[in-house]
Design brief:
With 209 residues, the protein is mainly β. It is built from 1 helix and 16 strands.
């Protein structure tokens, strides 16, 4: 636009994006040539157990549409492209696949929580405790403080390895439960400090509390 003085000008730019180029979904993800069971392009998180043999050298393949930009990140190292070989460590490993649509702005992040099922793995995959946010659980954190005024508390624990045994018990009481891969129990609480212990026993006998 030119002003009446014939000198002053102003330029306006319009950025138009075609919705047909905003598709950021993958069509498939394969591990060692096998598609992830029940893969859904709209589901962004998967928990997958991997054998010792597969964990040593795992090939990850992501399939996109129309040559979209894809990257695979593992242990804070991002590799551009749709395929990558990784060696998993014992226990929980996290791989993030980023897929970028052609409009440049739209992105979808697929998180693969890969569990290397080694015989000495005595870690929990998940711990749900009333009064404790789900986001607060970390397999490497072994102590938690929870305030409770209801008189009871419900806990559920899930091990990383399906064959691992989990035992939940309360100190100085007979309250306890044992399960394989998972356990759930509602404890009666007493006035003052109540200590609940969760013992995980790995396939080879390794334990962690």
């Amino acid at each position: 636009v030119t002003a009446p003085d014939g000198i002053t000008t102003k330029e306006y730019k319009l950025y138009l994006f075609n919705d047909n180029y905003s598709d950021d979904e993958l069509t498939s993800i394969k591990l060692n040539g096998k598609e992830i069971a029940d893969f859904d392009p709209e589901q962004e998180e998967y928990v997958i157990r991997v054998s010792d043999e597969e964990a040593a050298s795992l090939n990850i393949e992501a399939f996109n549409k129309d040559n979209q930009l894809t990257s695979i990140t593992y242990q804070n190292q991002r590799v551009e492209g749709t395929t990558r070989n990784v060696s998993l460590t014992s226990g929980l490993n996290e791989v993030v696949i980023t897929n970028q649509a052609k409009d440049i702005w739209s992105r979808k992040y697929y998180t693969l929580k890969l569990i290397a099922e080694t015989k000495d793995n005595a870690d929990l995959l998940d711990l749900n405790v009333e009064g404790l946010s789900d986001a607060a659980f970390d397999p490497d954190t072994l102590t938690y403080n929870v305030s409770n005024t209801t008189g009871t508390i419900k806990l559920s624990a899930l091990t990383q390895v399906k064959e691992s045994k989990v035992t939940m018990s309360m100190d100085y009481t007979k309250h306890s439960i044992v399960g394989v891969n998972e356990a759930e129990y509602t404890f009666d609480l007493y006035e003052g400090l109540n200590v609940i212990r969760i013992l995980v026993e790995a396939v080879d006998g390794t334990t962690q509390t």
